[in-house]
Write a structure and sequence with these properties.
The complex is a heterodimer of chains A (1266) and B (256).
Chain A (H helix, E strand, L loop, with lengths): L17 H37 L2 H28 L2 H23 L6 H29 L5 H29 L2 H34 L19 H14 L1 H28 L5 H25 L5 H18 L5 H29 L5 H12 L2 H20 L11 H4 L5 H23 L1 H4 L31 H12 L1 H39 L4 E6 L4 H9 L4 E11 L5 E3 L2 E2 L6 E5 L22 E5 H5 L8 E5 L4 E10 L11 E6 L1 H8 L6 E8 L5 H10 L8 E3 H44 L1 H9 L4 H34 L1 H7 L6 H26 L7 H6 L32 H12 L1 H29 L14 E5 L2 H5 L1 H10 L3 E15 L5 E9 L8 E4 L7 E5 H7 L6 E6 L2 E11 L8 E5 L7 E10 L5 H11 L4 E4 H45 L1 H9 L4 H40 L12 H24 L7 H6 L1
Parallel strand pairs in A: 5-9, 6-8, 14-19, 16-18
Antiparallel strand pairs in A: 1-10, 1-11, 2-5, 2-10, 3-4, 3-7, 6-9, 7-8, 12-20, 12-21, 13-14, 13-20, 15-18, 16-19, 17-18
Helix pairs in contact in A: 1-2, 1-4, 1-5, 1-6, 2-4, 2-8, 2-13, 3-4, 3-6, 5-9, 7-12, 8-11, 8-13, 8-15, 9-11, 9-25, 10-11, 10-15, 13-15, 17-25, 18-23, 18-25, 18-27, 18-35, 23-24, 23-27, 23-30, 23-35, 25-27, 29-37, 30-35, 30-37, 30-38, 35-38, 37-38
Chain B lengths: L3 E12 L6 E12 L3 E5 L6 H8 L7 E6 L7 E2 L5 H11 E5 L10 H12 L4 H15 L14 H13 L5 E5 L7 H16 L3 E5 L3 H6 L2 E6 L2 E7 L6 H14 L3
Parallel strand pairs in B: 3-8, 3-9, 6-7, 7-8
Antiparallel strand pairs in B: 1-2, 1-4, 4-5, 9-10
The chains are: A alpha+beta (1266), B alpha/beta (256).
Chain lengths: 1266, 256
Amino acid sequence: MATATHPPLTQPIIQSTDRSSMGRFLVLWVGAMINNLGSGMTAFGAAALAYQLTGSASAVSAVLACALVPPILLGPLAGVAADRHDRRLLMALGDGGGIGGIAVTWWAVSQPEPSIAVISIGMLLTGLFTALSEPAFKASITDVVSPDDYQRSSALMQLVGASRLLLAPAAAGLVLAVASIEWILAVDAATVLVTVAATLAVRRSLASAARSRNGDAATATADAIVEPPKTAGFLADLEEGVRALVAVRGVMVLLGVFVLTTFAAGLAQVLFKPLMLPRISVSAQGALESVAASGMIAGSALIGAFAGRWRSHRTLITGLLAAGGFLAVLPFGGVWWVALSGFLFFASLALINTGADVLVRSSLPNGTQGRAWGLIGFLSQFGFPVAYLVAGPLADLVFEPLLADDGPLASTLGTVVGVGPGRGISLIFVLAGAMIVFSGAAAGRSSSIAALEPDTESTDRLPNGPPMAGRMGHDEDHRGGLMTRMLRADVRRTRVTSFVLAGLIAMAALLAAVGGGVLTQLTGAAGRLFTAAHTPDIVQMHAGAIDTVAVEAWVDTQPDITDWQISTTLPIPTDELYLGSESEARSVLQPAVVTQHESFDLLLDLDNEVLTVGPGEIAMPLYYRNERGVEIGDTVSIRFPDERFDFTVTSFLRDSMMNPTLATSKRLLISPVDHEAIAAHVDEPEHLVEFVLADRSQTKTVSDAYGESGLPTNGPRLDRGTFFLLNVVSHGIGIAVLTLLALLMVAVAAIALRFAFLTAVERDLHEIGVMKAIGLPEKRIRRLYLTKYVALALAGGLIGTALSVPATRLLTGPLRQQLGEPDGSWLLFAGPLVAAAVVVLAVVVWCALMLRRLGRITTMDALRSGTTSNRRRRWLRLPRRLTPRISPRLSRSHLPSAPWMGVNAIARNLRTHRMLLAVLTLCTFLILVPLNLWTTVSAPSFVTYLGTGSADLRLELRTPEAVEGSSDLIAELEQDADIARVAPFVTARFEVLNTEGETEHLTVEVGDHDIFPLSYLDGTHPDQPNEVSVSSLAADTLGAEIGDTIDLEGASGSREVTLVGIYQDMTNGGRTAKGQVSIDGEPIVWRTVLVDVADGVDITDTAQRLTATHPEVQTIEMAEFADQTLGELIGQTGTLAVAAAICAIALAALIATMFAQMVIARDGSQIAIQRSIGVADRSLRVQYLTRFLVVLIAGIALGTVLVATAGQWLVAGAMGQLGAPALRFDVAPLLAYIAVPAALTATVVAAALIATGTFDRFGLNHLTEE
Amino acid sequence: MSTQHLIADNVWKSFGHDEALTPVLHGIDLSIDQGDFVAIMGPSGSGKSTLLYCVSGMDDVSDGTVTLSPAGSEAVEITALPQRDLAALRLNRMGFVFQQVHLLRNLTILDNVVLPGVTATPDRRADVVDRALQLLERVGIAELSDRDITQASGGQLQRAAIARALINEPELVFGDEPTGALNAATAAEIMELLAEVNAEGRTVVLVTHDPVVAAYCRRVVVLRDGVIDGDLRRTDGETDESWADNLAGWLISHGT
């Protein structure tokens, strides 16, 4: 017969099994998460709005203070209320009342001129009611949750605070990018309603559960609903708490440190917006704040992994010093510097939190902890409200004026911090940071704090307080169950491996996110550019006069054409174009001046707005800024022989059709007046006949119709799709490689995970056996491991995603410049997030699958593990024996014993080393493919892929003057002593029929193709009359093979020619031809002369001499020709090569470290045995080094072979699309065969050495363990 | 043969730290003579294995010294040596036999015996291999030399362990319950071997709980709660039965 006279202080209402209690808790928890998210979004949005309306920090201060101060100040009172009344009713009330505040705020923001005061009132109301509900919620946990689940639930509780800090800003930023703050308020209201509903539901469910149990007489006692215990009264509690605190001096000092730190953090919180909003958009601000806040999680994760290692005192000091430092440097850099320092600042806060937590907890007597914590929580948060109230006025009234342009401190501090708007705020950051650093130093010296250090390391008392910014009083120190304790011990034991695994996943997520981000940005940006520019669907380029009437007549017959125009472009000879005082004679470009069109094919400025220029002004393509260093305000002049036109550069333009570097035509925008004036000096204007269609799918039909119409076609005819492709392709290579890298990384992560998992299970086999033997359900065992890996995956995914933001920004630099800035839509975030989420999900699923293996271990096997039985690891084995029978013998070998032992270890355990081999092979592959591509593309011999022979100089005869004097020029060159070889070429345009029976243009270069031969894919160069060779893409289009005849349709009739050779050409869309054909009467497209200088003659000198004597001829060095044509490609592949190398080496380091650590841990007993028989540590190290080096060499060798085969094939395939299907790597032996292996070797050796460290830990305990 | 070989002087050994510091050996003074055949016995928790590991340099002491002073050589203070020198000591001058055998699983039986030999004298591999084969022959498992350790019985493995212990002609052989995992018949064979080893002039120190094993020895030291509780020597010329009887009675009186 039991009586319940004195129920314990926190009698749980539920005492039964997990499911229902966790279930109810989860409902409440989800509600709180959502609600917090909503109110966090509102706080962000309102603060941002306040700044946008007033531009003053005080407004931000006011709004944030109203929202955030009430919960802090009223916390204790609300806590008492929570103790006395029905908690869930309180929660519902608080949340419901919050709606009133939201309504007020809504009314305020929808006014034409919103008043900050009213907004603040609305926020205040919400804040007050929030103050009611939060403590009730926190206390609810103990009511709703069974003791078993305390640990889990309080861990989940921390996430609630995180949702406000971490998710809310980004979410709010997203919404604000596409909608207005009203939407946020609507969301907030909705979330409140959801929460209220959930709370009421749970309350009802609790009541009914209790009622049904009360009906059961047999269990009448402790299950009865117990009235929440009445506390003795707030003041009495307060007194006791104060007494407990004051008793320990160190705690008071610590408290002081806390207050100081929270004050500084509060300052930063408020002033972050006024600091950054002038520079960036609101959505970017949201993303920034979230990234910074995620540092808290990263910091906590780090502590979780390394907890116990550091003394809490040191953790605290380090955290303080670091936090202060990062805060101080935060305002002095670009956006992603700010993001980085913000991130690190928050991570340091986690350190501070943890260190202080442990110190305080270990110093207070257990009984008073509850009350003391409430007080500590309250006091420590005191810094925040003070900061919120003070920050704004401090900034606006004191610091900003101090550092204004003419402020009193401008000439002193201003030289360091800077002057002008925003600098005063920066100074506050610096001072706040300094404050924290000083408090850190003070705490470091304080003996009373050091005295708080707990003596023994208790593995049970790992700190698990909520993050500092959300602390609201404290939960009990819930002891975890066996599972969580084992989990913690496991993570700590394998912290290197865990760290590496998280790092791997982070890398994979990073790469995936960057790839996703770049892809979405690229396609989005290109699409937006084309939309803004109204790029036409069909463009026919025509050199020469044009019959407008005929075209118009034809257009009338085409119902699909909705709009059309003929654009006149005036080509300017490069030697007549001057940038400043330098002529463009040496450029490969073909510049032309145009005027802005009315409705489509628009040239845009860098904000993607339609450009207008006035008389005397000119807008230049971006190329001239990037490659020529032209700036706004510079003079560009066109100097005809008889007249000179000067223009001032007023803007740079984006040309949806001519943007990419591969397009050599560039359009320069001038006013119609100037255009007319210049037209008089240009003999042969060019025309673009452009059409816009109603239905883009009809593009081919209409284009063909034009071709058959007999209308002018003296030039290529292109469509919108081609332009789009051209814009995207050059960036596309980067994306393709990134995606490949990401996939490889995920594969490696999977391999590494499996290895880590198998090792872990093997090591824990005995423990698993025990667990099984005592009847622990397998699900719990599996959950233990799964939790760990899921946590790792999440951590890695978060870090990777966070890092992807600056990385994507970096990689899309050129893209954004050419195509425009991203518009901040949700897609921008969706791309990378989804990609990273996929990676994390893949990892989790993979782990879950692997864990099924646990079921296959029999209990006795597990318990017996450690004995040398043949049945050992049967369940880990592959179905067939893949291990070959290699049996080295020490007795028969000539190797010294240490290396032999290393090699023997590999031979005996091939399976174990597979992973390392695979990874190292992959890494070699990863480094070498982009590297070889880069060396190939930047080698001078690469010109052979540009359809031109390898000569020293290339002369282009473009002007009529040059053409006239061409025969004289050739004669002169041939007699020039400094010149060894001369080869003139004339290129004419013909028409041919492609495989689909359509007419296509084909330029045929005629001349002596023997002097500067190309390398041919097939066949040879044409030297007999009526022989041609074509580029590979042209051969594909024509469907022609060596020996076939091709019909060339020319203006003066058709000719039949024989195909004798196929070469590679990446220029001009990849379709060109060379031949010995009669070109009389055919339109000449261009004339070139290839020249080789004599031995010992300087190429540049000769080029300059020729330019001087023949200014009408464009003389370029071949190297520069390649550079100009391929410039972007070379730059991109270079960046890619570097990025890939960094990734691969980081990967190798990570894997090698992990592998070394695991292998050595596995070999523990063997190492101990060797040490016992007297093998020296140095010898052991040689053994392991040998092992790694052997695998490394094999990996490098294998990787190199793979690169030469599969890598070569892959790249050739990709380049084939651009016209170079037989691209062969031009390997730089120094780099590829020496530098790269050396770098990899150094990395792996370093990792091995770090992991081996000392073998001291493999001593007696390992021997006596088994 | 009354020259001192291994001297433990006031050896203390504690485990744990701060409040959890637990002394296991309380100021042990033990002197082992050259060519002695000593058994260290005691109830579990008495610290006998700890003592063995302390005097052999496998573990360090909390206080006191252990000195190795073989006849005709310089005395060496084991407790003052750095790790590297201790390893050299174990390699060249000591041999160990463990209850769990502790052979390396990646090596054949022959290679297991060869390894300490080539580690000590790397340039004389052929000689080492010869010697190893001879040793294996001597301990009676020559035909198993090319087998993996998973292909031999416990007793055979223990013989291999003894061969390994002898490869470098050690002056000291230590054994921690060498027969603990073996059945009686095999145990007897192992002890015969060890007796032979001792007869060659090597000092042999064993830890055991088995009186039958102790009977093979000529001196028995009993530990209890970290101190030496008894020290019995076999008198010269005593018969095996007499020694066994005396020992049995003496052990009972010392509660072992």
